[in-house]
Specification:
binds adenosine-5'-monophosphate-propyl ester, seven-stranded mixed β-sheet, 32 strands, 20 helices
């Protein structure tokens, strides 16, 4: 076995040969003529001229050898139901949905917004888009109508697909009513909404002419056969919106061929998932982890993928481990938050089940603290691999790569740069590489490897400006994360360099939350910061200046509640601040920039740092006071 260090070196020094070999893992209907076109930096086009299809690789390709094998197992502890689909059945389901979409006028290149709970139909819809070359954009169900409307206007979909509702902790969460609301706000609504009715929302109503009932339409396409549309490798496969430093979400655009190769390769080399084995990823289809490792990755690898609707502690804290036991899960992928939640429960739940089928547990999405890493490793008795990546990269960027070399794991570290990534830790102002043990910005020297974002949907300029313009005189991709490397070459991620926060593994921009808070008519100005939270990693806290005079505690409480409701309505409850503190003035520099870092430091009980540029020190004193007051109450 070659050492991982050599493997990685070859992926950088002999880039094209390396990826040409990896590309053999997927089916090419037409072979590519060039491995990489990097004639327009920083844009990279992988496998130029090659034609393939993600749905073909995920479904059709497996039909001869594993048509009767389970492809998808859906388990809902919310509605107490399990449904399984073999590859042959999945193929039939996806073909039907593809035909249904075509009957509603969806063509290659059209966008389709999918706003759905964790039901198998959402997986069919995603794969059906891929099959006919439509570009899906899945929006996480936790986002509210206004956020959905912003995404609709950016993507301009030909069709939206939704369900009446989902369920969380036994409570119905309506989806369709939110879609209705968002379509009233949107300037570019689609012609049709395809509705999968689960019978959860009793007050469901349909808009005649616009809304189409899934089950009724399905009847006319029961035996549909829809051929895969072959796509040139660099054509877009999907758009996934993610948060950044501005209030405007970015549409991360992904290609077809590069993504297929990166996923097929990572499934083998990183996740060690083989055909016939089972993978259980506990994320949601609305996030990148759901795209890559609930749907496309495991299916491309010919595995059985488990899709779970529910929470980790219901009916009890053993439910995930029971799934591992009952389905002989070989590869599991979750987030540190979930493990911290489980850590608070009775450890007996872990011992109750046989988890010996598990090769590894992979965790990503937010920093994995050393005590949690240690706890779960010991409790599970299996290796737990912390790995680091982003919506933008689509697959791991720092990780152990156990199928190449079983390098020892260090608690709290996502190990090393993944092959294909030329990672450099750069000093934030000089742009020079920092020595070991010193903190720097995690950057990637382009070309970005296959699988990473191709651009921002409809805005090449924003792509270059956002990601490649942080360091003067050199074009490098910035992850906006701080990192440090120890003397053994292991990396540690220290948090974001920008205003993005991570709440229970959900990525949110504090600017988006500020915009939502400011929608309240009585808010003149506000600052939102992320503060450390034992369970969720981080929580947003808002500091607001009210337009009216708030003299009593009751008035403040009332406005706080109203502001929280406004955030729920604008962005979704996942973005709701833990507290809203009212001040008469926000701490700013003399040039008018809000001192968010100082506010955050105070909120976390740290030193506020350099305050030489502050306009009015009294403003920071107010922050200190409101934090103190709340602390005592
Ligand atoms: O700040 C990093 C954090 O999550 C961000 C990316 O979030 P998202 O786009 O939702 O993609 C998640 C894909 C797993 C990163 O910029 N992050 C992700 N993984 C880790 C992490 N921080 C520390 N350790 C990790 N393993």
């Amino acid at each position: 076995m070659s050492s991982y260090r050599d493997f990685h070196r070859r992926s950088i020094e002999d880039r094209e040969q390396f990826w040409a070999e990896e590309a053999r893992l997927v089916h090419w209907q037409k072979p590519f003529s060039r491995v990489l076109d990097y004639s327009r930096p920083p844009f990279s086009r992988w496998f130029v001229g090659g034609e393939t299809n993600l749905c073909y690789n995920a479904v059709d390709r497996h039909l001869p050898a594993r048509g009767a094998q389970k492809a998808l197992v859906w388990i809902s502890t919310e509605v107490d139901e399990t449904r399984s689909f073999t590859y042959a059945q999945l193929h039939a389901e996806v073909s039907r949905v593809a035909a249904m979409m075509q009957s509603l006028g969806v063509k290659k290149g059209d966008r389709v917004i999918i706003y759905m709970p964790m039901v198998p139909e959402s997986c069919f819809a995603i794969l059906a888009c891929a099959r006919i070359g439509a570009i899906h954009s899945v929006v996480f169900g936790g986002f509210a109508a206004a956020s959905l409307a912003a995404r609709i206007d950016d993507a301009r979909p030909a069709l939206m697909i939704t369900a009446d509702g989902g369920s969380r902790m036994g409570k119905v969460v309506t989806y369709k009513s939110l879609v209705d609301e968002s379509l009233k706000l949107a300037k570019h609504p689609p012609k049709h909404v395809l509705l999968f009715n689960r019978g959860l929302d009793k007050s469901l109503s349909l808009v005649p002419g616009r809304d189409v009932d899934w089950k009724a339409l399905e009847k006319s396409h029961a035996d549909a056969s829809v051929a895969c549309t072959w796509l040139e490798s660099s054509e877009p496969s999907y758009i996934l919106y993610t948060s950044g430093t501005t209030g405007q979400p970015k549409g991360v655009q992904r290609d077809v061929g590069g993504y297929a190769v990166a996923l097929a390769s990572s499934m083998q080399r990183i996740f060690c998932g083989g055909p016939g084995e089972t993978m259980f990823t506990t994320s949601d289809i609305g996030w990148v982890v759901g795209h890559s490792y609930i749907i496309y990755g495991p299916l491309i690898a010919g595995m059985t993928t488990i899709m779970y609707e529910g929470v980790p502690i219901r009916p009890d804290a053993g439910v995930w481990w029971k799934i591992v036991q009952d389905h002989k899960v070989a590869v599991m992928f979750s987030a540190p938050t979930a493990i911290r939640v489980l850590k608070k429960q009775d450890p007996e739940y872990l011992r109750k089940y046989d988890v010996s089928s598990l090769k590894h547990l992979f965790l990503a999405g937010e920093p994995l603290d050393e005590p949690t890493h240690k706890w779960i490793t010991e409790a599970l008795g299996r290796p737990v691999i912390d790995h680091y990546w982003q919506t933008e990269t689509g697959w791991p960027l720092l990780s152990a790569v156990p199928a190449v070399e079983k390098t020892p794991l260090k608690m709290g570290s996502p190990s090393f740069p993944v092959y294909g990534y030329d990672v450099r830790l750069l000093h934030e102002s000089s742009g020079k590489e920092v020595p070991e043990g010193e903190k720097g910005v995690v950057t990637i020297r382009p070309p970005l490897p296959p699988g990473c974002m191709s651009t921002i949907w409809g805005d090449d300029e924003r792509f270059v400006k956002t990601y490649f313009s942080d360091f003067k005189g050199q074009q490098v991709y910035s992850t906006f994360d701080w990192g440090i490397r120890d003397r053994d070459g292991y990396y540690f991620i220290l948090g974001r360099t920008d205003d993005v926060i991570n709440v229970a593994g959900h990525r949110l921009g504090t600017r988006e939350i500020e915009e939502a808070v400011s929608m309240h008519p009585n808010v003149a100005e506000c600052a939102v910061v992320g503060v450390a939270d034992e369970l969720k990693g981080q929580m947003p806290i808002a500091f607001a200046v009210a337009k009216s005079n708030l003299s009593t505690a009751e008035e403040k409480k009332k406005l706080e509640k109203e502001v929280m409701d406004t955030v729920d309505k604008q962005l979704g409850a996942i973005a709701r601040p833990k507290a809203v503190h009212f001040v008469t003035l926000l701490p700013k520099t003399r040039s008018g920039k809000t001192l968010r870092r100082s506010i955050q430091a105070l909120a976390e009980g740290r030193d506020p740092g350099d305050l030489t540029t502050i306009e009015d020190p009294g403003a920071l004193e107010q922050v200190r006071q409101v934090l103190g007051q709340k602390g005592k109450s």
